[in-house]
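fyi for ur records
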Amino acid sequence: MNVGEREKSGKNCLVFFRNKKICDYDGISEITAGCASRGYYFNKVLCVAYDDSWEITFALSDALKNYENIVIYCPKAMENTIKGFVTAERGGEFGELNIYAAPDLTAFMLFSDCTNRLLIEDICAVLNKKYSANYERAYIKTIGAPNLLINDAISQIKSACADISVNATEKYGDCVIELVYNVNIPKTEFDKAMRAGVSVLNGYIYSLDENTLAEKLVQLLKLRRLKISVAESFTGGGIAKKLVDISGVSEVYVEGLNTYANESKIKRLGVNTETLRRYGAVSGQTAAEMAEGLLATGLCGVAVSTTGIAGPKSDNTKKPVGLVYIGVATADGTSVYEFNLKGSRNDITQTGINLALFAAFKKIK
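which gave:
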């Protein structure tokens, strides 16, 4: 975020009171990400053990003295103590939604151990009114894009329009680049920035809106009037689960087979015994025959297959952990993709699921 945007959104502080014996930071991640996606960033995050009275006093004093906007995240049991400290220092009272509003300070209180009536969008709405701001969001969503390319795209976006803030989050190969901008930015400048990011990442993009990868694939299948089937080995039904979670998928989804054993690949998909003997279950040849076996049923127009080694140990072929093959077969032919993935067993599996969905998306796009 550039200096101009930072001035418009004030100096902001998040004070997090926590049990020092429990390393749980999910709550503050949700708050910081939620605020960032609406154009507000924290200049400082203070994490304080709630059983240390001196640290509590120091953190609140620092926040009250140096920041215009404070979000306090604490257990419900601390509510009265913190409110009493703030009002004793500044006067006034917290409102019904646990919002403190004064000319030089706005404070919000969220509880870490119970349901909050005050929501992140409420906090940002108050700040929007305070700073006469109105932020919108746009997205560039990618699968498998290298970090260097992601960084280049972000640099190009900021070069094209310095008033756009960029948030990038990646999980299992799925990178979401979020562009946060004031609606007062000229549309020509925003469009230029968007084009700059898209041009860098073009081969990896699956969406420019809020829809997930699975949702975009289902939409495309409906548009192309195609049905899909999947045969999974190391992904263990994960692709099927992603698809059937989408409302209306019954229009395009035929079946999902979890063909883990070689015998299952042979009997259910028609994989050649010689292929397995010569190349192994984890091979491009096997991935291709798995997908082609599904396509041969005549029930689908797109068939996806996965085979790989998720770990933590390799199989008896001594192929490396993380070696993954994804096959996609259509009437136009079969494509096979090889990946060498890193991370835990879950990391490899979940990344493989996303790569398979994206491979199907690219094949029929």
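The longest helix spans residues 345-364. thats all i got for now
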